[in-house]
Amino acid sequence: MSTPDLIESEAFIRLAEHPDINVLFGSGAIHSLGEEAAKLGSKALLVTDAGIVKAGHAASAQASLQASGLEVTLFDQSIENPTSACVDACTVVAKDAQVDLIVGLGGGSSMDTAKGCNFVLTNGGSMKDYWGIGKASQPMLPLIAVPTTAGTGSECQSFALISDDETHSKMACGDKKALPKVAILDPELTVSQPTQVTAYTGIDALAHALEAAVTRDRNPVSDRHARTAFALVQDNLKKLFSNPEDLTARGYVLLGASHAGAAIESSMLGCAHSMANPLTSRRGVAHGAAVGMCLPAVMRFNAELPAVSSIYAGLARDAGLARHEDTDADATDAIVTHVEHLLQLAEFPLTLQAYGFADDELATLAAEAVDQWTAGFNPREVSVSDVEKLYVSLFAGSTCEDKGVEACS
Ligand SMILES: [Fe+2]
User: Fold this and answer.
1) Number of alpha carbons in the 13 Å side-chain half-sphere of residue 55
2) How far is the CA of 324 from the centre of ligand 1 (A)?
């Protein structure tokens, strides 16, 4: 892809096995929003956040929608880690405007808010009623997802991640009816994100590919998406870190992140995400930083299973990180080393003490991590003790004995 031209990525649609998702990919794809929306409705709710409005992307989206004759109602109050209250506020606006179409424009949070609103608007109740899979009995409105960060892959997923206002639990609410009808991937929209956000979201996409590739639920569909995602993200993320203006690299990372999202939709995630969530909820560690910090240790832990090591080795060989004659162990080592190299380039702290964690929190963190939904999909069963040892490895210069944890295996 020398120039990320506007194309209908039919190969992607076939790979996704989501025949209802029409993926538009390329520079300027945002200008096709109105044309696509007009096929699905006439009164659109545009769900976004204040930062996206400031960057001018909401105005571009609104102009495209209006040029195609749609009425547009704006909800620009999406927040990071959206809560049930945020979804309820969005739903009130949607109900008043009697919308028949929803457009989620922004990072994962705006798309989660848009999906959450769709659940409550069409099926009633509140978000906690949809915690789990397939809880919506009524049809939902068509949704168009327009990501402005290359990371979550939410545009290819049927899940909304919403926090409960009272318990602060992150609720994964999924239903096939919540899957976007159209995903518009325009790399130009990602240029406005701060460099640090590019690093966080890019590393998150990398982790999505590597975790979804090996989960217990891995299957041929997730395998194809995860392979494509890793191939696209690993090389282009490196280019993007050295030149944030590289629009072609941005395009590839954005496309890769969507493939990773489709892989998650098919096979879920693993222990790096389980370990990351308590770090975010307790100290506000950015999701991408938390996942990235945990990823190499989790990959080494999972690679103890020969079948998993074989998958990592295959990814390493395909990416030219290892030779075909290398053993699986050596090729796995090469891919983990490459991940560590990318993490260094991302330039965020990679130790628990850098985020203010103390030794006496390890057991609690580990207990919370194994309780996460994603832990159940990790290819290797994880106990509290296993995770505690993995956390110990994230304290620079520490050993399990230092921390009073039974000797690391
Ligand atoms: Fe993630």
Assistant:
1) 21
2) 30
Q: Which domain holds residue 374?
A: 200-392
Q: Regarding beta strands 101-106 and 143-147, do their DSSP bridges make them parallel or antiparallel, or are they unpaired? A: parallel
Residue 404: inside a domain: no
pLDDT for the residue numbered 229: 94
What are the per-10-residue average pLDDT scores of the chain (409 residues)? 40 44 87 96 98 96 98 96 96 98 95 98 97 96 96 93 86 94 93 88 97 97 93 93 91 93 94 95 93 98 98 97 97 97 94 94 95 94 97 74 48
What 8-state DSSP symbol labels residue 83? B
Same domain, residue pair 235 and 370 = yes
Rounded to the nearest angstrom, the distance between the alpha carbon of 189 and the centre of ligand 1 is 20
Q: What is the CATH number of the domain that holds 47?
A: 3.40.50.1970
Centre of ligand 1 to C-alpha 292, Å, is: 9
Q: Which residues surround ligand 1, an ion (CB under 5 A)?
A: 204
Residues 6 or more apart whose CB falls under 8 angstroms from that of 220 comprise none
Cα of 381 from ligand 1 centre, angstroms: 20
| Tokens coding 209 | 């590919």
Is this model's pTM higher than 0.85 or not?
yes
Cα 95 to ligand 1 centre (Å): 31
The encoded tokens of residue 302 equal: 């999972």
291 Cα to the center of ligand 1, angstroms: 7
Handedness of CA 28, 243, 252, 268 (dihedral sign): negative
Query: What is the distance in A from the centroid of ligand 1 to the CA of 274?
Result: 10
Whole-number Å distance, alpha carbon 257 to ligand 1 midpoint, is 10
Q: How many domains does the chain have?
A: 2
Compute the distance between CA of residue 117 and CA of residue 140 in angstroms, rounded to an integer.
10
Strand partners, 25: 7, 185
Tell how far the Cα of 202 is from the centroid of ligand 1, in angstroms.
Answer: 10
Distance of alpha carbon 58 from alpha carbon 354, whole angstroms: 36
